[in-house]
Amino acid sequence: MPGLNTSSLPDLIFSVLFFFMIVTHMRKVTLKVRYRVPQGTELTRLTKKSAVTYIYIGKPVDGMSHLTGGGSRIQLNDKYASVSDVIDYVSEEKNRMSPEDQQQMTVSIKADVSTQMGMITDVKQALRQAKAYRINYSATQRK
């Protein structure tokens, strides 16, 4: 019985590997808060994703809600933060961007539908102090 010719197998494996490297995207942030995005009617898509900084607000996933009295927590990158940390976070993100992205910097707030408006207002005030005036609220299309 003749042997199986496997000389083209490495080419096939590298082709499949290259395909998955192109198609998949790496998650930048591990979410520590759970949020259900609110629904809206007049929504637009963000065009330049490189100039977008995300702030997540929601209930903790890891059972740490007893520390906040069952309320929401703020997540910046991979860690929990307070409202006062938002100013430094936005300044650091702005310094990492190119000069043209700094002009178009948008802060996208991804908040849970049950988050109290007081916390979102506090975050907005901190963004105002950090001179981040373009604010976006993430939502899904209402059906």
Low-pLDDT stretches are: none
* Helix and strand run: HEEEEEHHEHEE
Shape: elongated
Give the biggest sheet.
6 strands, mixed
Distance between the termini: 63 Å
Annotation field: number of helices: 4
Overall mean pLDDT stands at: 86
Helix/strand/pairing category? alpha/beta
Radius of gyration: 21 Å
Strand fraction equals: 15-25%
Number of strands: 8
Helix content: 25-40%
Report on this model:
- The N and C termini lie far apart (63 Å).
- The protein has 143 residues and is of the alpha/beta class.
- The strands form 2 sheets. Strands 1, 3, 4, 5, 6 and 7 form a 6-stranded mixed beta sheet that branches. Strands 2-8 form a two-stranded parallel sheet.
- 31% of the residues lie in helices and 22% in strands.
- It has 4 helices and 8 strands, in the order H-E-E-E-E-E-H-H-E-H-E-E.
Keyword list:
143 residues; six-stranded mixed sheet; two-stranded parallel sheet; elongated
Concise overview:
31% of the residues lie in helices and 22% in strands. The chain is α/β, with parallel strands linked by helices and 143 residues long.
